[in-house]
Amino acid sequence: MAETCGRCHADRAIIEKRQIPVPQAFQLYQKSVHGRAVAAGKAAATCNTCHASHEILRANDPKSTVYRENIPTTCGACHADERKAYLESIHATAMHNGATKAPVCTDCHGEPLHLRGAGPEFPRQRRPGDQDLLQLHAALQITEKYGLPENRVVSYQNSFHGLAARGGNLTAANCASCHGFHDVRPPRTRNPRSIRVTSSYLREMPSRRQREFRQGSVHVSVTKQEAPILYYVRTFYS
């Protein structure tokens, strides 16, 4: 199927003539987890799985299978568990309430270069698309519009986990380690016990360390006002 579609979608002359918006779609699909699986003789998504067969519509058509709001349903045809988790997340809720820029499957996994959530091409510090996620949550127009805290990115980057990740440590905790992947949920309460302990990263901790983790602040701004001890220790150390 991909080779059939690729007769046109890999032809430079046709791509330029028709002004096809994704000129490398065929090549990217071949590199994707789906393309590699099909090449290995396994059952996996091909072009028509996502784009349909005869009713191929533009991505900006609300009836299209790849229309932004329809993508979770399209992907969920194969990935039912992930779709169920996503539909219970704050991102799906935001999308349902009219926030059309809220993340969907392709924002993290790419399109058409779908990447697996684990593996060398998707290392832990990038799951799921951490750099894009950090940029999104640091954007002033996003934090102001949706009332999100402004210091979350900086406080993470300056934390032990953030410094370790920036230094190349692939096992350091990232956003998804605490907030989850598909089922990102809003904070229910400020009670320390509400901190997520169901992620694999925190489940690996002994119960004593989990209790200690819950008692501490998570996103700490190292300033004289908010964390004076950390501020002076860091200043002295530097």
Describe the structure.
This protein has 238 residues and is mainly α. It has a domain at 1-114. It contains 17 helices and no strands. Helix 1 runs antiparallel to helix 3 (25-31). Mean pLDDT is 81; it is low at 119-129.
Relevant terms:
single chain, 238 residues, mainly alpha, elongated
Question: Summed up, what is this model?
Answer:
With 238 residues, the chain is mostly helical.
Write the layout of secondary structure elements.
Layout: H1 2-9, H2 12-18, H3 25-31, H4 33-39, H5 47-51, H6 71-76, H7 80-87, H8 90-96, H9 105-109, H10 130-138, H11 140-146, H12 152-157, H13 160-166, H14 175-179, H15 200-203, H16 207-215, H17 228-237
